[in-house]
Write a structure and sequence with these properties.
The chain has about 325 residues and is an alpha/beta fold. The protein folds into two domains: about 5-240, Rossmann fold (3-Layer(aba) Sandwich); about 245-315, no CATH class. Helices cover about 35% and strands about 25% of the residues. The protein has helices at about 50-55, 80-90, 105-120, 125-135, 155-165, 185-200, 210-220, 235-240, 245-255, 260-265, 300-315, and strands at about 5-15, 25-35, 40, 65-70, 70-75, 90-95, 170-175, 205-210, 220-225, 230-235, 285-290, 290-295. The strands form two sheets. The chain has an eight-stranded mixed β-sheet, with helices on both faces. A four-stranded antiparallel β-sheet has the order 2-1-4-5, with helices on one face. Helix 3 (about 105-120) runs parallel beside helix 5 and helix 4 crosses helix 5 (about 155-165). It starts with 5 loop residues before the first strand and ends with a helix.
């Protein structure tokens, strides 16, 4: 293992009590997130992205594998001290700002809830000061603390959710499609806010999304997941310029082009799992180029390496 902030090692998550009803949502997934980076996790709905995020913050139990935080295992049974550290240092921004806030509680309590859980303040004055600071950091007025969630727009509610995470002074934020439920005009504001907070507070992000154009804007590296398997991982621009796996190529081909003429002419690829011949040799996780990993067997890997070598050699 390297000096990664977070390491996911052969993570498997299954749902269902009986063998007949058991469903494998995540299949032996491994990746590392380095301090200060924004790591993107992309794929279709139902591919296992959110399940991975919820496993990292200890909402979902692991069937096998492990999760390491600064080299210490945080999956399974852990000490109270380590649990407190994880609760404080790893926070999650949920997808739906309408459903993730308690409608019966005022913003003051919603933002403070994590502090109450860990006893993160000495007195009431300190707690209120922390709430005020968190609200100001996300561009909300301190007087909003006395209001209820239904009094705010979707964008404002998501900012409240971000403030709730920030007040814990986390190091890693798991952002689970934080802008998918927002209007297009508000999305850029929230993305810019996340970028500013990262620079100001030295945050590390796991950014979960299905909108690849957004992921390109904000991430340093991207992992592509399909039906519980990570099929490709590379630096963001490398992945967009030289995709290797057929599933990644299909996802990229579906990105809308702002020019109507180009949009009409472009060809959308359809991913067919039958394109892989795994009858004699199954796929494994391999490095096709430095820092560029892909899932495939020996024949596919040879083809991928030729493809990427040719692409890099072209003027």
């Amino acid at each position: 293992m390297s000096d990664a902030l977070l390491t996911v090692d052969k993570l498997r998550v299954e749902f269902g009590s009986s063998a007949k009803k058991r469903f494998t949502a995540v299949k032996d997934v491994s990746f590392e997130i380095m301090k200060g980076e924004t790591f993107g996790l992309v794929g279709e709905s139902g591919s296992g992205k959110t399940t991975i995020g919820r496993s990292i913050v200890r909402i979902n139990e692991l069937s096998s594998g492990r999760i390491l935080w600064k080299g210490k295992q945080i999956s399974g049974t852990i000490s109270k001290e380590l649990d407190r550290e994880v609760v404080q240092k790893i926070q999650m921004i949920f997808q739906d700002p309408m459903a993730s806030l308690n409608e019966r509680a005022k913003v003051d309590y919603i933002v403070s809830e994590g502090l109450y859980n860990i006893g993160g303040f000495a007195n009431e004055a300190e707690r209120k000061a922390k709430v005020e600071k968190a609200l100001l950091e996300v561009g909300l007025l301190p007087e909003f603390a006395s209001r209820f969630p239904h009094e705010f727009s979707g964008g404002q509610r998501q900012r409240i959710g971000i403030a709730r995470a920030l007040i814990m002074e986390p190091e890693l934020l798991v952002a689970d499609e934080p802008i998918s439920a927002l209007d297009v005009s508000i999305r850029a504001q929230v993305l810019n806010l996340l970028s500013e907070l990262q620079k100001k507070n030295g945050l590390t992000y796991l950014f979960i999304a299905h909108d690849l154009s957004v992921v390109r804007f904000i991430t340093d590296r991207i992992a592509v997941i399909n039906k519980g398997d990570i099929v490709e991982l590379a630096e963001t621009e490398e992945l967009f310029e030289h995709p290797l796996h057929p599933y990644t190529k299909a996802l990229l081909s579906a990105i809308p082009v702002p020019d109507p003429r180009q949009e009409k002419r472009k060809k959308i690829r359809i991913y067919d799992p039958a394109c892989h011949d795994y009858s004699k040799e199954g796929p494994s996780w391999q490095e096709a180029a430095p820092g560029h990993y892909v899932l495939g067997n020996a024949a596919e890997l040879a083809r991928y390496r030729e493809e990427i070598a040719g692409a890099h050699a072209a003027p």
